[in-house]
Structures are given as C-alpha cells and as structure tokens.
Design brief:
367 residues, alpha/beta, seven-stranded mixed beta sheet, two-stranded antiparallel sheet, binds glycine
C-alpha cells in the first residue's frame, strides 16, 4: 500500500492507495466507526459497479452501513440534491463525529463533502473515489461544491476529508473516454513542475490507458503526492501555489462554457485542450519554446485528448471565448490570472495577461 500524507495540522489525513483496497475497506474503516452505521452516498451507476464490494467488506468487518443512492450526472451537484441529502442525513441522526462516506466520482465527492461541511455545522467525511479524475485530483485537497444557476462550483467550502481510500481497480469499469479525461489531470502534474514525470507519461500513458495496473498505481500515487504537497503549502489558494493546479483551466473553462458544460466536452477534455492552448499561448508570448508547446500537444493528441478549439468541437470567436473567461470564478479584482509556462515543468502564474491579446490568439487558433 502507498500512503500519502496530506499535512494540514489538525486537519491532516492520509490518502491510501492500493489495488483491491475496496475489498478491504471495512478493515481500514474500523478505526473510524461510531455507534451508528456508516452512511455511504453514491450514484446509481456506482451502486451497481462498486457498492457490492464495499458493502461486503463492511459486513466482513462487522460494520453496518446505510446506503444513499443519488441520480448519476452533473445535475446532482444542485441545491435540490443538497437539500434532499442533508435532510436524509439529519433524518438518519448523523452526528458530527460520524464519517459520511462519498463513494464515487467528482460529483458525489463534491456534493457529499459540501453536505458534510454544513450538516450540524460540520460532520466528518471520507472519500472513496472511483474515477481516475477523482482519484488524482478532486478527492484530495478539500474543495467541495455544488453548481449554481450562474456557473459551476460557485457554492461550496474548503472542507478536508478525514481519510481518502483509493483502489485503482475501480477503474476497470470506467469507460475509455472518462479514463482519458482523468488522465489529462495526471499529465498536468508533470507540466506544472515535474519534467521527469511528463517524460514518464510520454512513455507510459498508453499503457495506463490500456489498464496496466502498475502504470495506473504509479500515476495515481505520483499525482496524489504532487497535489498533497501543493495543498499542504496553500490549502485555500491564497499564496498562488495551489493556483498552479488550475493549469489549463482558464482556457478550458471557456471551451467548457461554450459547450454548455455538457457531455459534449468533459472537464478533463477541456483541461487537456486548455493546457495545450496555455503552452501555445506561452510560446506565442516568447516565454516557452515552440518545441515544448508542440511536445505537450503531441502527447495529449497521442492518447486521444483534444488539443485545440477544433478538436474540442468549439467554433466560437476569440471575443466569445474571452467573454466566457470573464465569468470564471478565478476572476480577482477585475483581472484574470493565467497559468502560463516557461517550459515543460515550469508553469507559473501570470498576472499581466492582456485579454485583447488572448482574444487575438484564440482568433488565430480558430483559423
Ligand atoms: N482541482 C484544483 C484544486 O483542487 O485546487
């Protein structure tokens, strides 16, 4: 088992990574048991694919569980589902010391984390992520949220889990498109500050995508360790360090917004295209070599991820895309910080970006 600590003083916790861990989760959860059953929240797909394994391991450890099954999909990150979930948690008599379990992908993790942060002014919760994206990114670091009418993730809280259990074998049932989308966030860690890991991705990305167990576990452990290090330094994204994790997200946000935040462009696909655009834009500014920008695109393209407007299915003007960027929650004091790069593994936060220049760049990309 690989154990990655997330060091946050009294809010510190472990991320445990091991193939087959879901079948032994009951044992791992024993120290977290209270007199009440574990409430386990999941969506309808995970209820079929993963819940039987967790249920069996809880039973084997002599632990009781109360499952709550919600509809699958992004619309579940809503006020309506939050209200229904918090009502149910209160009805079940959940107390602050209880650990509510989020079993699933980013939607369930974000919703359950936020519900846990507000029920009885804060209950404990445990993440058991079952998608690549949630295993390498959203389950670690305590960002929790629901969507508002005005945009994605606009209502939420920083609220850390008490434990994260990752079983890479849960990815066996994940579709290839979702695996690819999650892989974009893996590559991101190499692009931020780890050139060697980017090279590892170039060599092993296709193996990982094909389900190679060793490649999968290595990528998850490296990603979680990278994220844990950044979160420990800048938990609430105030110093600029955690903002590095948003590489590709500003360009990606504009593409996702143009596609209506729908299945037409998954978040990870938007991030992949956004990272390729961030490197291309950095090259255009003369900050990064065009060889590096082309190398980033080549790898993302090689695993089937979009690397530009066309591949992302977006046909919008530079002005429209910049308009979407202005509604990004990362806007601060009327300006939009951009994550740009001086090379692979050398991402930095640029505060001097002229949006008219970005618009011109996007217009060129369109042609
Ligand atoms: N997904 C970016 C972050 O957790 O900060």
């Amino acid at each position: 088992m690989t154990i990655v600590p997330v060091s946050l003083g009294e809010r510190s916790y472990q991320v445990r990574i091991e193939p087959g861990l879901l079948d032994r989760a009951g044992e791992a959860l024993l120290p977290y048991a209270t007199k009440r059953p574990f409430v386990v929240v999941m969506d309808a797909n995970v209820a079929q694919a993963q819940w039987p394994r967790l249920a069996a391991s809880l039973e084997a450890a002599g632990l009781k569980a109360e499952p709550i099954v919600l509809p699958a999909g992004e619309p579940t990150k809503s006020w309506a589902q939050l209200e229904a979930l918090t009502d149910r948690l209160i009805e079940l008599g959940v107390e602050r010391k209880d650990h509510i379990i989020a079993l699933g992908g980013g939607v369930i993790g974000d919703l359950v984390g936020f519900a846990a942060s507000i029920v009885k002014r804060g209950c404990s919760f445990i993440q058991i992520p079952t998608t690549l994206l949630s295993q390498v990114d959203s389950s670690v670091g305590g960002k929790t949220a629901i969507n508002s009418r005005a945009g994605k993730n606009l209502i939420g809280a920083f609220y850390q889990p008490a434990l994260v259990l990752i079983d890479p074998n849960t990815l066996d049932t994940l579709g290839v498109r979702d695996t690819r989308a999650g892989y974009a966030e893996v590559v991101k860690y190499g692009l931020i500050d780890d050139f060697d890991f980017f090279e590892w991705c170039e060599t092993n990305g296709s193996k990982l995508m094909a389900g190679d167990a060793e490649a999968r576990s290595h990528a998850i452990a490296k990603s979680v360790a990278a994220k844990a290090g950044i979160v420990a330094e800048d938990e609430r994204e105030t110093s600029g360090r955690r903002a590095l994790l948003n590489l590709g997200h500003t360009f990606g946000h504009a593409l996702e917004a143009e596609m209506g935040f729908s299945d037409k462009l998954l978040h990870g696909e938007g991030v992949a295209a956004g990272m390729a655009l961030a490197f291309a834009y950095s090259a255009r500014r003369g900050e990064c070599s065009s060889q590096d920008a082309m190398r980033v695109s080549a790898h993302l393209r090689a695993v089937g991820l979009p690397t530009g407007l066309k591949e992302a299915g977006v046909d919008a003007s530079g002005a429209t895309l910049v308009e979407h960027m202005l509604h990004d929650k990362k806007m601060s004091g009327g300006t939009l910080p951009f994550l740009l790069a001086r090379g692979i593994g050398q991402t930095y936060l640029a505060k001097d970006v002229d949006l008219a220049d970005v618009e011109a760049f996007l217009e060129e990309q369109r042609g």
